[in-house]
Amino acid sequence: MAVSTFDVFKIGIGPSSSHTVGPMKAAERFVHRWLLDPGCLQDVVRIRADVYGSLALTGRGHGTDKAVLLGLEGQRPNQIDPDIIPGTLERIRSSKRIRLMGTHEIAFDEKRDLGLNKRQKLPYHTNGMRFTAYDAQDQVIATRDYYSVGGGFVVNQDDAADDRIVPDETPLPYPFKSGDELLAQTARSGLSIAQLMFENEKCWRSEDEIRDQLREIWDAMQQCCARGIRQEGTLPGGLHVSRRAPALYRELSSKPEAAMRDPLTTLDWVNLYALAVNEENAAGGRVVTAPTNGAGGGGAGGGALLGPGSFKNTAPPRRR
């Protein structure tokens, strides 16, 4: 099976790629493809979103409700500014109105229009969603089912029914199925691991596209680290867990330069970046999934490479 770098490293919001990233994508996709593109968005006076099975059982704890609201407003997980999330949700909930694709405002009562169907499942996967839009006569304009199948991937009802969730069989110039096979390929080709992966990636994208998307991921990693260090307060949920990254950053920043020669101090900085990213993930911030939000701490790697206290906008080097 061929796996792209960009299938492994994706930008999305925490805390769950299945329960948060997927539902936001599905909600945005429904409004965009089935209402905006056909030109019937202005006819919508009511929209209902239903989530089923696992999404309903752990939905509020994993931010599924928030993700659906933001997706209906046209927000995308890889582009959303996490600083606007609290205010947007407060506006929707206090006014009981939502702006579909950010432009068409309609009434939206979360208790009435967002259903958590804990005892029901849609046919093809436990992470099922159904979106339905109605006109002024309460007639259905469009309705679609979606499934969040893991890692932020979303499939519609037709793909699921036709069993189109299949491995990517794209032939690669340097295929491998294990670490040993990867090392053997580098030995035969004389390429480094990075160069070999770059050559494989060219099966899907141009060199410029690869570099641009790597820079986007790199920038998201840095922004995530910086925001995690900057944000104070407590994490969402009933346990009221305080964020620890800001205090750790202040403590490490106050140490004299000589302390940096201690390898354990260097590890403290690495731990800081990992902690900052994981707290951002838990808070519903924007992280780099690797390949899921459950492994979102991998996003700390980009920040850790920058060195203590530095979050300059450094792009990946060009391949020579």
Characteristic key phrases:
320 residues; 9 strands; 42% helix
Structure description:
The chain is an alpha+beta fold and 320 residues long. The chain is 42% helix and 15% strand. The protein has 13 helices and nine strands. The strands form three sheets. The chain has a five-stranded mixed beta sheet. It has a two-stranded antiparallel ribbon with strand order 1-9. The two termini are 29 Å apart. The model is unreliable at 297-320 (pLDDT under 50).
Largest sheet, strands/sense/barrel: 5 strands, mixed
Helix and strand element order: HEHEHHHEEHEEEEHHHHHHEH
Q: Helix tally?
A: 13
Low-pLDDT windows of residues: 297-320
Helical/strand content category = alpha+beta
Count of β-strands: 9
Rg over alpha carbons: 22 Å
Fraction of residues in helices? 40-55%
Q: Strand order, biggest sheet?
A: 5-2-6-7-8
Categorize the overall geometry: globular
What's the end-to-end separation, in Å? 29 Å
**Strand coverage percent:** 15-25%
Mean pLDDT metric: 89
